[in-house]
Design a protein that fits this description.
The complex is a heterodimer. Chain A is mainly β. In chain A, about 10% of the residues lie in helices and about 35% in strands. Chain A has a domain of about 90 residues: Immunoglobulin-like (Sandwich), CATH 2.60.40.790. The radius of gyration of chain A is 19 Å and the shape is flat. Chain B contains no helices and eleven strands. Chain B has a six-stranded mixed sheet, with no helix packed on it. A four-stranded antiparallel sheet of chain B has the order 3-4-10-9, with no helix packed on it. The mean pLDDT of chain B is about 85. Classes of the chains: A mainly beta, B mainly beta. At the A-B interface, β1, β2, β5 and β6 of A face β3, β4 and β7 of B. β5 of chain A pairs antiparallel with β3 of chain B, so a sheet runs across the interface.
C-alpha cells in the first residue's frame, strides 16, 4: 500500500469519505446520551459478533463504568493524572478529566453476554449478536 | 464543587520518517508529559496496547529513545466496521538537557502509560535500561 500522499487532493477526498462514512454509519448514531467524543472507538466484526476496541490509557478498572442496555453500550469514567505539586512541568500533552460516551449498536445484542477486557490501557468489548438476530437457514422443501 | 473537566480526543500524530521502513507499519507519536523535580526528570508517555515486553527504552549520547510495539496478531480475524482512531506502533526521542545517572534509570508500564524516571547525576556511558 502506498503510504505517501502524492496528490494533495487525496487527503481532501480521504477526509470527505471519512466524514460521509461517519454520517452514514449505523454505529454511534447521533443523539447519544453521552457527553462528548472521548474515548475514540473502533468497531470490528468477528464472524457474527462484534468487537469494540477503545483506547483508555491510564484508566484502570475502578475508574471505568460500563453499562449495556437494549442496543446501547455506555462507556463512562474518569481519567486521572496526578503529579507532584513541587514538580516543574516542561511539557504537558496528556489530557485528563471525565468521559461519558454511549455507543449505539445497529444489531440486536444480548446485553447479559457482553464480555469486557481492560488490558494495557485498551478496553475490548466482545458484543455477541443475539440468537434471534442471526439469520436462519430456510430449507427448500 | 465545579464539574470536572471533560476529556478531549487527541488525534494521533504520525512520526515523520526520515527513512522508509521495510515493513509498512505506521508509527505514531505518543502523548507525553515531562516534568522535573530536584531528584529526577520524569517522562510519562501514553502507549495504549503496548505490552511490557514490546517496549524499549534507550539512552545513547544524550538522546532518550522510547519505542513501543503493538501486537497486531490480536486483530487477526477482525474486520473493521467503524473506525475512529488509528492503530500503530509508538516512538519518540528526546535530547536530554540534564546529565542523568544512567545506572539508576527506572521505567514502569501500567495501563498503557509508560513512566521513565531519570535521576539527575553526572554523565556516563550509554546503555540499555530494563523495564519493570
Amino acid at each position: 500500500m502506498v503510504s505517501a500522499f502524492g496528490n494533495p487532493f487525496d487527503a481532501l477526498f480521504a477526509l470527505q469519505h471519512a466524514l460521509e462514512a461517519n454520517l452514514a454509519s449505523d454505529w454511534l448514531g447521533a443523539g447519544t446520551a453521552g457527553l462528548g467524543t472521548f474515548p475514540p472507538i473502533n468497531v470490528f466484526q468477528q464472524g457474527d459478533d462484534f468487537v469494540a476496541v477503545v483506547e483508555l490509557p491510564g484508566v484502570d478498572k475502578e475508574s471505568l463504568n460500563l453499562e449495556a442496555k437494549e442496543n446501547t453500550i455506555r462507556v463512562a469514567g474518569r481519567k486521572a493524572i496526578e503529579y507532584d505539586a513541587t514538580a516543574s512541568i516542561h511539557r504537558r500533552e496528556r489530557l485528563s478529566g471525565v468521559f461519558d460516551r454511549t455507543l449505539s449498536v445497529p444489531i440486536r445484542i444480548d446485553p447479559s453476554a457482553i464480555r469486557a477486557e481492560l488490558r494495557d490501557g485498551v478496553l475490548a468489548l466482545f458484543i455477541p449478536r443475539a440468537e434471534s438476530d442471526k439469520p436462519r437457514r430456510i430449507n427448500i422443501g | 464543587m465545579a464539574a470536572a473537566q471533560e476529556v478531549q480526543v487527541q488525534q494521533k500524530r504520525e512520526v515523520e520518517q526520515k527513512r522508509e521502513s521495510m515493513v509498512p507499519t505506521r508509527v505514531f507519536v505518543p502523548v507525553t508529559d515531562i516534568f522535573e523535580t530536584d531528584q529526577a526528570l520524569t517522562v510519562v508517555l501514553e502507549m495504549p496496547g503496548v505490552e511490557r515486553d514490546s517496549v524499549s527504552v534507550e539512552l545513547d549520547d544524550g538522546v532518550l529513545t522510547i519505542e513501543g510495539r503493538i501486537n497486531f496478531a490480536k486483530y487477526d480475524g477482525l474486520q473493521p466496521v467503524y473506525t475512529e482512531y488509528n492503530i500503530g506502533n509508538y516512538a519518540r526521542s528526546f535530547h536530554l538537557s540534564r546529565d542523568i545517572d544512567q545506572a539508576r534509570i527506572g521505567a514502569e508500564l501500567k495501563d498503557g502509560v509508560m513512566t521513565v524516571t531519570l535521576p539527575k547525576a553526572e554523565k556516563a556511558k550509554p546503555r540499555k535500561i530494563p523495564v519493570n
